[in-house]
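From the shared-data thread, chain only:
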Amino acid sequence: MFLWRLPRAACVLSACVCLLLAYEDDIEVNYADPFYNEITESDTPEPTPTSAPCSSPELTKWDKMFSMLENSQMRENMLLQYADDIIKVEMGSLRNEMLRFVAQYGGSCGVAVESAGRRMALHLEGRLKETLERLRIKDHTSPAAAAAAAVNSVGNSFHLEGTLQQILTATRSQASRLAKLEIGCFSHPGAGTGVNSKIGSLFPEVGAAGNQEQDVTSRDVTLDAVLAALQQTKAQQEEVMRSSRQRFLPAGCETALLFPMRSRRIYTAVLPEVPLSLSSFTACMWVKPTAVSNKTVLFSYGNRRNPYEIQLLLAQSSALFTIGGEAHLVEARGVVNPEGSSEWMHLCGAWSSKQGLASLWAGGKKVASTPGVAEGHVLPDGGSLQLGQERNGCCPVPSNMGSGMPGFEGGFDHKLAFAGKMTGVNMWDRVLSEEEISQLALQEGQGCAKRGNVVAWGVTEMVPHGGAQFIN
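Structure, as C-alpha cells:
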C-alpha cells in the first residue's frame, strides 16, 4: 500500500516546485529609491536679509527703583483691599454669631427669676396644704370637743377654711401662669435644653425644691460664662476696630500724600493762589511718620533771604515749630514716637505777629507756647512752600533737576526728608481758637471738611516730586 502511494506523492511535490519557480520569475524586485529628493545648486533659494531686532533703551537705576515703588504700591493697595474684605466677612460672621447667641441665651436671666418665683409659690402651696391637713385632722380626732364648741367656733372654722382655699387657688393660678411664661421663653430652638422636661409637672413635691435650686445655680454659672464670653468678644471687636482705623484716613479725609522713603528727590511743592504776606497764621496737618530722624521737615516756607521763615519739624520724640529761624523755637517733647507711629497724629502751629506768641498743638491740645517770637514781623511774599523737605543752601542742585526753585541756589538734603503719610494740610491767615483746633484733631470727625483760606487740602495745587504720590 505504501509503495503504491509513493509515486503519487513525488509527482505532486514536483508540480508544486515547478509552479513556485515560475512565480518567482514573474516578480521583479526594484531596490532603487522611488523618491527624487536631490537639490541642485541652481534650485537653491537666495537668503533674504532679516531686520535687526528691536532695541529697547536700557533702564537706569532710578527707573528701576520707581518701577519697584509702583509695584510695591500696587501690592500694598491689593493687600489693603484684601484685608478690608476679610474684615467685612469677619464682622458679618461675628454679627451672625451674636444674633444666634442672643436668640439662644437671651431668656436665661428671665428664666432664673421665674424659677425662683415658682419655687416660692410651690413652697407657699405646700405650707397651705399642710395647714389645711392639720385643721381637718384636728376636727376628726376630737368629735366630742368639736360638738361642744360647735356653737362658738363653727363660723370661724368655715371662714378660715374658705380663706385658705382662696389662697390655695390663687397660688395654683400663679404657678400655672409662671409655667406658661417659662414655656413661652423657652420656645426658641436650643434655648430650653434640659428644662422643658421639668415643666411637665406643674405642681411637684416640696422635696424637689433642692433640685430646682441646683438648676438655678447651674444657670447662674452659665450666665457667668456667657458674660465672660461677651466681654472677650467685645475686646476682640475693639481690637479689630482699632486695627481697621489704622488703615483708614482720619477726620473724613479721602486722599493722602505718600512719601515712600527719605530722599532729596522726594517732596511736594505747594502752590497757593493767595500771597503769603501774613502777620498771623495757623498751619495744621495729619502725619503718620514711618521713622523720625534728628530733624525731619514736615512743612517749610522761605525765600532767598531767609529759607527758614516757617518750619514745622519732628526731632526724635519732640515736635518743633519755628518762625524766622531757629532763634525763635517752640518745642514740645514726648509727643512723637521716634520709631515711627502706627496711628495718625495731628499737629498745628500758630503764630501772631501782634502778640509775638507762637504755640504748638498736638492731638488737639496745646503742648507748648512761647511769647516774644518774631513780634512785629511780617512773612515775606514770593517764597517757596514745600512738604516733606526744606530748600536751603547746603547741597548742590542735581543736573537732572534743572536750576531748582526760583530764588534758591541750594538743593535738598536727604537727612531732612520726611518718610510716611500726610493728609489734611491746611493754612489760615489767623490764629484758630482752641475749640476749632480740637475739632480738627478728632480722629473720627470731619476735620478735612474745614479747609484753610491760604492753603486748602484738596483745593490748593500740590505737585508731588521724585516718587511722592497721592493715595486713597
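The radius of gyration is 49 Å.
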